[in-house]
Amino acid sequence: MPKKGTGSFRTLQSDKRIGLVLPGGGARGAYQVGVLKAIAEILPRRAPNPFAVISGTSAGAISSVVLASQARVFRHAVADLERVWGGFRSNHVFRTNTWTMLRSSLHWAAAVVFGGLGVGNPRSLLDNSPLRELLGRAINLQSIQESIDRGYLDAVAVTAASYDSARSVSFYQGHESLQPWERVRRVGQPDEITLDHLMASIAVPLVFPPVMIGREYFGDGAMRQATPLSPAVHLGAERLLVIGVRDEGPEPAPGRSDMTPYPSIGRIAGYVLDALFMDGLSQDLERLTRVNLILENLPGRTLDTGAARLRYIDALIMLPSRDIREIAIRHAHEIPRPVQVLMNGIGALNYGGRQFVSYLLFEQGYTRELIKLGYEDGLARREQIRSFLEGAPLGMPAGIAGWHDLSEHYSQRVRTLRPAETAGS
Q1: Rounded distance between C-alpha atoms, residue 305 and residue 410, angstroms
Q2: Is the pLDDT confidence value at 195 over 60?
Q3: Higher local confidence (pLDDT), 282 or 347
Q4: Which segments of 43-142 does DSSP mark as H helices, in order?
Q5: What is the mean pLDDT of the segment spanning 148-152?
Q6: Contact status, residue 358 vs residue 325, Cβ threshold 8 Å
Q7: Are residues 220 and 205 in contact, defined by beta-carbon separation less than 8 angstroms?
Q8: Among 286, 285, 311, which residue's Cα sits nearest to residue 300?
Q9: 30: closest CA among 402, 404, 362, 275?
Q10: Which letter, b or e, does each residue of 61-71 get, where b requires 16 or more Cβ atoms within 10 Å of its Cβ?
């Protein structure tokens, strides 16, 4: 894949096609921007986009498309991302005025009390039309094809979930040589990425309204995305850099004498969002680990099963070094008063609701701290990232670095794997 303006940095001349995977995570997506900022600093100042394939879901889809539309100079694209994410207010994402919040609450209450309002039933808890307006102004979607034509990018993918066909659809824009794919309840479909694709991918169920694409209504791409690494691999990526937004440990189980409070709606909603955004990535990484362990001793590290050709894929995982839930609860006071009233009503602003808040807290104090955390985490692993981008093998069992769960679950079966080194590398 030809690149222009590469300077002396070997990553852009590597024959290893690197895929960037940005899973969903709502407001937590600011952490991904911080890691991207560190990568931009590691690269030469005017280096182009170093990723052959960029795949994003939900909030990650927005960052993916911005990077694709400005692939000529990677640092410029990241600077634009930081400007938008660092300046976020909730009213840039959804309507937060008192009348809108009151109307939404009354509308839902009436629908419940009267057993539905027919065509007048509420479509979502929040109105995210301000975000559509912001993205329409901030992203030049026509530049994506220019990035592809000039060789700065092979493909970009945005994933959404169809409410009608019950499939996960990865819409991709890329070279004509790329082939669509179809698996059980997930497909890859060529299309020109539009604002509708972005709004569909970020349409958190019940919270934001579904979006029609073609003849189907779509919602948040994380809903049915059991294999978030798959689109990048199908589009030709041979190694993956994955920027996740969760690495917190589970809550301790209550003791025999502990009083266990009944979970509030806010806590349940946070649990649902956490499962929606995060569990697919963990499961797919575990699947990749098993495949790599099988392949690493085979000739060429490949296996042709007839139905598919399995390839050994190195993956560098970037995850937060701190618990994002704790950061969110410290910034919860920044939420506009009308939204606070609504969230208080469902028990989302106490300690138990911090998970829910961490995904919907689109306020600049919070997003800037997450950007700072991602930037620091990226620079802390500067040499590893540089080496990975240059095409050097990770040289680790299962070919995966930076995923703490790997060291915990596989260290007993893969004795050469050193948990401390993996988690801190």
Answers
A1: 25
A2: yes
A3: 282
A4: 59-69, 74-86, 90-93, 98-113, 129-138
A5: 95
A6: yes
A7: yes
A8: 311
A9: 362
A10: bbbbbbbbbbb
The closest of 231, 235, 203, 234 to 216, measured between CA atoms, is 203
Q: Are the C-beta atoms of residues 150 and 207 closer than 8 Å to each other?
A: no
CA separation for the pair 278, 109 (Å, rounded): 31
Name residues whose C-beta falls within 8 Å of residue 92's C-beta, 6 or more positions apart in sequence.
130, 131, 134, 362
Report which of 253, 205, 204, 167 is spatially closest to residue 28, judged by C-alpha positions.
Answer: 204
Q: Which amino acid is at 303?
A: L
Residue 219: strand pairing partners = 161
Band of residue 107 on the pLDDT scale cut at 50, 70, 90: very low
pLDDT grade for 108, boundaries at 50, 70 and 90: very low
- pTM of the predicted model, to two decimals? 0.85
* Type of residue at 408: E
CA pair distance 13, 50, nearest whole angstrom: 9
What b/e sequence results for 245-264 when a residue is b if at least 16 CB atoms lie within 10 Å of its CB, and e otherwise? Answer: bbbbeeeeeeeeeeeeeeeb
| Interacting residues of 272 by C-beta distance below 8 A, sequence separation 6+ | none
Question: Letter for the amino acid at 69?
Answer: S
- The answer to whether residues 273 and 355 touch, using CB atoms and an 8 Å cutoff, is yes
Q: Which of 82-86, 89-93, 261-265 has the lowest mean pLDDT?
A: 261-265
Separation between Cα atoms, residue 323 and residue 303, nearest integer Å: 39
What percentage of the chain reaches a pLDDT higher than 70? 76
Alpha-carbon 376 to chain mean position: 19
Q: Which two tokens stand for residue 312?
A: 């050994």
| CA dist., res. 125 & res. 121, Å (int) | 11
Q: Which helix (H) or strand (E) holds 217?
A: strand 216-220
